[in-house]
What we know:
284 residues, alpha/beta, Rossmann fold, Adenine-specific Methyltransferase, domain 2, 2 domains, 9 strands, globular
Amino acid sequence: xxxxxxxxxxxxxxxxxxxxxxxxxxxxxxxxxxxxxxxxxxxxxxxxxxxxxxxxxxxxxxxxxxxxxxxxxxxxxxxxxxxxxxxxxxxxxxxxxxxxxxxxxxxxxxxxxxxxxxxxxxxxxxxxxxxxxxxxxxxxxxxxxxxxxxxxxxxxxxxxxxxxxxxxxxxxxxxxxxxxxxxxxxxxxxxxxxxxxxxxxxxxxxxxxxxxxxxxxxxxxxxxxxxxxxxxxxxxxxxxxxxxxxxxxxxxxxxxxxxxxxxxxxxxxxxxxxxxxxxxxxxx
Length: 284
């Protein structure tokens, strides 16, 4: 099962490794929603899923609330696959004042599946500005939408930054952070993600870990990240890359999964608790 959206840094391919480091708990908190691959591949009783991108969170919320209505709208949009269709829908998405939340959510998914390599990029005015991808038949993720709608009943979605999200932790919460990677494209939304953000995020996670929350972080294997998470156990993995790679080429990159070292939290030993199953997922 793939994810609803294409997404740079999608965790689907690395889930077999990542799942080893995610302990059980009553709720998983994700400050960087992205494709929601981790939510879809795990089995926590509850989820708090956040992202700074209001279009992404709105799409997830609309799918959760009324998947049948969402599918009716997105199915109509997917019948329009010319370059002119794409530009017209993008124009209305960026400047249409009368579009409702459901149409905007469906249009966001349409743009994601029809634009170049599924990139999500906005200009300084907040307009989605990724060009047309020129695909003969973009993948229509109806099965993924239904699966997401079912899983999303366990989740609360909020449009918030990482600092606000991590301030909402309660006893027993497990934290997984997948921020924009150091040294890669970080302007997924107009606010961007700077090196100062990398420092600030790491300091918050260090504090939350010291308070007893299990924390797992994915990021680039760079000197900065190794230093920022030096008190965490660091596991190095090789991940495939597709975004920004020319057709026919293959590319991989070194990543770090940083895990807070103290594995006994709130009186529960999580060291032997990473045994719950996940759904095997593969991108179409």
